[in-house]
Specification:
The protein is α+β, with helices and mostly antiparallel strands. It has a single domain, classed as Endonuclease/exonuclease/phosphatase (Deoxyribonuclease I, Chain A). Helix content is about 15%, strand content about 30%. A seven-stranded mixed β-sheet has the order 2-5-8-4-3-18-17. Strands 9-11-12-14-16-15 form a six-stranded mixed β-sheet, covered by helices on one side. A hairpin with an 8-residue loop joins strand 17 and strand 18. It is globular and about 50 Å long.
Length: about 325
């Protein structure tokens, strides 16, 4: 952990405090919905123009925690519609989601169809006495606020990666799981904001968190990792956050929007900055930024070549 001066992008919205490195995993197994369109429930690897040997993975901060300045970013129904369009338009089979409500995530898996599964991990607040408390969604959102995974096949071997977190404040985190039907392992990270420690606002945890994320990815060369890093890419002379990035991020791994030696990328936030990322050592075959009115973040979609063993095997059906 390094000490670093904070400028506080989105701090007014996110400084709610948070705390947790080893939280309990809540898995929601999707059930059948008679209202699910066949084009979504039956979407295969080739949906949305994909090929059988490719798979599309997306990351999206849904801005579903309405009290975090998300009141004007759409209802849960509109956010679900965005999820459904991602399956139809881009053939997305795995999603890394941040700022999602637990019951909304569970409901989405149910409505998408019997093959869809989800994992959820809650945010937590830690106060000055070390007491922990969850963050409840308010307004139209329901359940606890947190981050999670949504996939069109079972998720296995789920684990929360231990990371440095604020001593007093809001704890986000890193959640990893395997997606055997796609031949992938995925890690979803929601990093701390600068000045996120109410007791030590000069401390910055993002360097330790990124290092932990890259180390977790190194456990399996088939890993796709990313999420909302609350950080711009390591470019530009005026970027005071470039130091947080481990060198492996853009060398051992390649980012969805990375071209040649560039470490930039298209904006993923409505303020014109790039805050959302997807990295992998697998071959990338496509990268899209999908704008949406259902969040203050755009959706980042990366298509990768499936590992050979996954391409040779049919997708596992879990219906029934």
């Amino acid at each position: 952990m390094h000490r670093h001066e904070e400028t506080g992008r989105r701090a007014a919205r996110r400084r709610i405090g948070r705390a947790a490195t080893t939280l309990s995993l809540l898995a929601a197994v999707a059930c059948t919905s008679s209202q699910t369109p066949a084009s979504v429930a039956g979407a295969g690897a080739g949906a949305g123009g994909g090929k059988p040997d490719e798979v599309s993975v997306a990351t999206w901060n849904m801005c579903g925690v309405r009290q975090w300045s998300c009141e004007e970013t759409g209802s849960p129904k509109e956010k679900f519609q965005q999820l459904r369009e991602l399956m139809g338009d881009f053939g997305v089979r795995v999603l890394l989601l941040q700022e999602v409500c637990s019951e909304d995530l569970k409901s989405s898996a149910l409505r998408l169809g019997p093959e869809w599964h989800s994992l959820f991990e809650p945010y937590e607040n830690v106060d000055a006495e070390g007491r922990r408390s969850g963050v409840d969604c308010t307004g139209q959102g329901s359940g606890s606020a947190g981050y999670g995974l949504l996939a069109a096949s079972p998720l296995t071997d789920a684990e929360v990666i231990p990371t440095q977190q604020p001593t007093v404040g809001l704890h986000r985190g890193i959640l990893c799981a395997r997606v055997p039907a796609q031949g992938l392992r995925v890690c979803n990270a929601h990093l701390s904001l600068r000045e996120s420690d109410d007791a030590h606002p000069e401390w910055d945890f993002r360097d330790d968190q990124l290092s932990a994320l890259v180390a977790a990815a190194a456990a399996d060369e088939r890993t796709v990792f990313g999420g909302d890093f609350n950080s711009p890419p390591p470019t530009g002379d005026r970027n005071k956050s470039a130091w947080i990035w481990p060198p492996e991020a853009y060398t051992t791994y390649r980012e969805c929007d990375q071209k040649g030696g560039s470490r930039g990328g298209r904006a993923t936030h409505q303020d014109g900055t790039k805050l959302d990322y997807l990295f992998t050592a697998l071959a990338r075959t496509g990268c899209e930024v999908a704008e949406t009115e259902a969040s203050d973040h755009h959706v980042l979609v990366m298509t990768v070549r499936r590992p050979a063993e996954a391409s040779a095997s049919p997708e596992v059906s879990t219906a029934g």
